[in-house]
Amino acid sequence: MTSTGSGRRAASGSPGFLRGSRPRYGEKAIRVLLVAASLVSVLTTVGIIIALIPPAAEFFGKVSFGDFITGTDWSPLFKPPHFGVLPLVTGTLMVTLIALLVAVPLGLGAAVYLSEYARPRVRAFFKPILEVLAGIPTVVYGFFALQALTPLLQDIWPGGEGPQVFNALSAGFVMGIMIIPTIASLSEDAMNAVPNDLRDGAFALGSSRMQVATRVVFPAALSGIVAAMMLGVSRAIGETMIVAIAAGGRPNLSFDPLEGMQTMTAFIAAAGIGDLPTGTIGYQTIFAVGALLFVMTLVMNLVSIRLVRKYREVYE
Questions:
Q1: What does CATH list as the number for 65-311?
Q2: pLDDT tens digits along 201-226
Q3: How many helices and strands in the chain, by DSSP H and E?
Q4: Cβ-Cβ contacts under 8 Å for 178 (sequence gap 6 or more)
Q5: How much is the pTM?
């Protein structure tokens, strides 16, 4: 019995007993799909650049870049035409700023509650409800701002005439509600990624739940929170339907959120569905504004990547 057992052990330990593993075609297929998905993003970006550069170059061959950037009158479809893009940039930044003032406090507050205060059942119930806001069509948000929020603000405004029918305040407020799920969900995921050992150590030192959330978890998850905020900013800048419906379609170089304004995306949408002949300077303004918008979002993404790397925390 002993010799037989030893022989079996020897056979099992011999090199011939170990067989080569089967080829893992599934893993190779998944790897190919992931590479293809990443290449789609890269090729899409390259395609956008290729589509924007030739018409934008023709436009700037006719219009001075300095006049385009610093001009205060935007009326490319009138005679005489003016190509100062500052009213569009101002409207875009104004609406985006209002949206951030709404979305950042509410989104981060929701993230802190879901991550640090809510019980698992409560989190499982409220987080999907919060993310439902991201699935509502933006045209619905636009009509809500125009038909419900603006009349409400006009009725309760404490002094003066209140907001105009088309105004940046309503558009920015509703846009902020739209991007709350983006900031809240990604920030909550970043906070949940913080190891519980840091929380336990802070509680062991006598810290309250609020102190743990604000002084331990929030700084540790700062890179993910910054990334969530920058993604919300990018979505706010690129939003079209809300601003086209609620903010108006008249370029207006003003810092009063109660007035109507036109954003860069709203102009692109309005001019793109018009009857502009291909190759005219009016048609080329679409690509010039689109190129400027692309550069703005690219700069913000580069800044966000730098901030994420700066505040990134790696845990083992």
A1: 1.10.3720.10
A2: 888 888 888 888 888 888 888 888 98
A3: 15, 2
A4: 99, 133, 134, 136, 138, 141, 235, 239, 242
A5: 0.83
